[in-house]
Structure of Tryptophan synthase beta chain:
Amino acid sequence: MKPKSIILTKDQIPRKWYNILADIKMNPPLGPDGKPISPEMLAPVFPMNLIEQEVSSDRWIDIPEPVLDVLAIWRPAPLTRATAFEKALGTPAKIYYKNEGMSPPGSHKPNTAVPQAYYNKVFGIEKITTETGAGQWGSALSFACAQYGLTCKVYMVRISFDQKPYRKAMMETWGGKCIASPSPETKAGRDALERDPNTPGSLGIAISEAVEAAVSDTTGKTRYSLGSVLNHVMLHQTIIGLEARKQFEIAGDYPDIVIGCAGGGSNFAGLAFPFVQDKINGKAIEIYPVEPKACPSMTRAPFAYDHGDTAGYTPLLPMHSLGHNFVPAPIHAGGLRYHGMAPTVSQLINEGLLTPQSVGQLAAYEAGVLWARTEGFIPAPETTNALAQVVKEAKQAKEEGKEKTIVVCFSGHGLLDLGAYDKYLSGELFDYSLDDAEIEKFTQVLDSYPKPQDLKSV
Amino acid sequence: MKPKSIILTKDQIPRKWYNILADIKMNPPLGPDGKPISPEMLAPVFPMNLIEQEVSSDRWIDIPEPVLDVLAIWRPAPLTRATAFEKALGTPAKIYYKNEGMSPPGSHKPNTAVPQAYYNKVFGIEKITTETGAGQWGSALSFACAQYGLTCKVYMVRISFDQKPYRKAMMETWGGKCIASPSPETKAGRDALERDPNTPGSLGIAISEAVEAAVSDTTGKTRYSLGSVLNHVMLHQTIIGLEARKQFEIAGDYPDIVIGCAGGGSNFAGLAFPFVQDKINGKAIEIYPVEPKACPSMTRAPFAYDHGDTAGYTPLLPMHSLGHNFVPAPIHAGGLRYHGMAPTVSQLINEGLLTPQSVGQLAAYEAGVLWARTEGFIPAPETTNALAQVVKEAKQAKEEGKEKTIVVCFSGHGLLDLGAYDKYLSGELFDYSLDDAEIEKFTQVLDSYPKPQDLKSV
C-alpha cells in the first residue's frame, strides 16, 4: 500500500511561526487623524503581547509550549495525496491537500484562536469578546477559551444566529456565550435596533458590539479578538505551511502551485507564506489566493486604505478593498463574504508574488461534490472555492500533458453547512455576477482616504 | 512537549482482522423452522463472500489492499491520552481514547461500510440497500459506495428523515439516495402506510423495506447491508482494537479497563475483541460494554433467541434481547436504541469475559460536555455513554488512590447532533427509568422461541 498521507511525528511539529513582516515592507495602519497608529493606541482592544506580535518584524517567533500542548489535540495535520480526485479528473497533476478539517471545530481557525486565548490569559485577561458571521470563528474561539479557562462572548450576526442554531449550541457546549447581534447590551447594538428593530444584523455591527463590550469593561480584564486579516493572525496560521513544507521534504516533492481560498486571508496565508518565503529566496512557484466572483476584492478592487469594519471604527488598513459598505451576494461561503483582504496578502499581490484568482459558486460546489465522492471529506463552502481552482489547474495540466505538483489548503469540513449542499444538489444555487458600475459605487468611499504607497520589497 | 497521541505510521496499520469466532463457541442462527440456517439461505440478501466471512472461524482474515487504500483516508486513527479530562477529574487514572471521529462521516461505521461495499463490488453487485435510523450508518454506507462506484439506497426512518434533513444532504452529497420509510416503493412500506398513513416509521419497517428492495431485484445485482450486530461487521471493526494494541505497545502501557458504548455492539467489539483475545490468553483486564439505562439489553434482559428486526423477517439470533417489539424511550443516542445485542458480544457476556454497565442520559451528557471543554472534540450522543462510564472508573481510581490505565472508544463526533447538546444545556433532557414489569411485558415474546444453549468456550 502506497501511503496516502504524510504524517509528521509529534516531535516534527514546528516550534516557531514564520513572520512574513521580516521579508516585506508594509504601509502602516492609520488612525482617525490619518497618522500611523502607535501600539499603545490598540491597548484597550488587544493585550500588549499580541500587539507586540502584530508589529514585530522578527522572522521567527517561538510558539509557546502551552500553545503547542493544545494544538497537539489535532496537530500535526496530515498532508494527503488526493489520488482519487486526480483519477476522477484524469490529470497528470499530483494534488496534495493539507487537511485543516481535523480540529475540534473543524476548520483552521483554532490555529490562531488557541494562541490568542493563551496570550490573553498570560496577560491577565479573563474574558474575550468577538463577533462571528457564519459561526466558524466564534466556535473556534469558544473552544480555545475553554482550554485556558477564559470566558468567551460571541456576538453573532442575527440572520446567521437564527438560521444556524447548531453553531450557537456548539459554542455553548464549549462554555462560550453566544448572543444575537444587534443586541440591547451595547450602545452600538441599541442604536442599530432603534434604526431598524427587524435588522438581520451585519458583521460590521457585530464587530462594533464586540469591541465596545471589550473596551467598556472598566475592570480592564476584557479584550477583543479578531479571527483574520491582522498580521498576528496570519503569523499563527503559518504552522499550516511550515508543516506542509516539512511534509513535502519527506515526500521528496515540492509544489509548483500553492492554492488556498481567501476571505480575510488567514487559511490561505497559513499555507502560502512559508512558500512565499521560498519564492522570495528564488524558488519558481505559483501561488494563488482564490476568491468568489461574488466578492472579488483581490481580482477587481483597488489597493487602498479602508476600514476593517462596516461602521468605520477600526484603523485604516492598506488593503485590496471593495469598500467597507460593500454587501456581497448571499453566497454560502460565509467566510469569504468580506469586503477587504489582509494587508499582508494585499501587499504580496502588489509585489507580484501572489496571483489572485476567482471562481463562481456553481463551479465551487461542483468541485466540492466531486471531492466528497472521491476523497471522502465533505469540504466547507469556503474550501470548495480553492478546490474549483485546483480543478482548473488539473485540467490545464492535462491539456498540457504536464506533471505538476499542486498543494491546496483544505481549510475545513462542511458538516455544519450541509444545507448548502442540499440546495446545490437540488439546483437551487446560483452564480452571481457583479458589474463594474456596482464595484465603482462601493469603492468611491475609498477616494476620501489617504493613499497607500506603492512599496516594492523584493 | 509530551506527545498527546500515539500515531502509527502507515506501514503499521493492521493487515488482518481478528475473528473472535476462532476463540469462542456460538449458538447458530435459526431459520423460521427452528433449524440452523445454511449460508445458502442468506445468498439472496448478502453476497457470498461476506456470508463466508460471517460463518468463518479463521482467527485472522486478510484485509484486501483496495480496502486498506480507502481506510487510509483516515486510518490509522490516533490513540490519544485525555490528559485535560484526567486533570479536570483529578484522577490518578491514565485515560486513553481511540478517536474514530476522524473518518469522513465522523464515526467508526465506515470501518465496515468500506469492506462491505468492496466485497459487494467484487461479487458483481451494483446496488446496495440499507436502512438507517439517526443516519450514521446510511451516511457511512453512502460514503463507502461512492468509493467503489456502487449505487446506494437508504431507507431512513421517517421521523429522523424529517427531523434531520442534514443527514439526507450528507448521503446525497456522496451520491446515495435517501428516502423516508415507510415508502410506497415496497410492499412492506405500502402495508405500513395503509395501517397508518401518518406513521413516524421504525427501524423494523425500514429493515423490511431495504431487505425487500434487495431480494426483489430480479437482475440479482442488488444486495442488502447491515451496519452492526452480525459477525462480519464485528470482524471489520477489530481494526480499532488491533491498532490500539500496537499503540499501547509503543507507549509501553496496557489497559486495565476497556470501555465502549454498545447499541448493536460494533464500535465496542471493534475496540474490545483484540483485548478479549488477550484476556482469554490470561491477561488480567476488565472489559465494559456500556448501554443506556433506557435500553438495557445487556444488563437487564435475558439471553435468548430473537429476531434482529421488529417485523420478525430476520433469522433468530442468540442474543441478549429486550424483545423485538421493545420501544425505548426517546433518548438522543439513536445508535443505542436497539432491542438486541450482537450475538458475539452476548456470548462473551455469558462467558464472563465482559461486564456490561449502564448509565443514565444526564450523566452521559454531563460527561460529554466535560469532555468537549477539556479534550476539545464534541462527542456523539452514543459516545457520551462510554465517557460517563470512564468518569465512574476515574472517580473510583481517585477514591482508591490507584493508577489505572483506561482506554475508551471515542466512536464518533457529535457535530450533527448539536441539537441534543442544546437541549441538555437548556435543562430539557431527562433520565428515563424502566420498571421490571415493562421489561417483562416486552420479553414475554421470547418464550415462544427455542432456547440457546449455555455454551462455555473458555
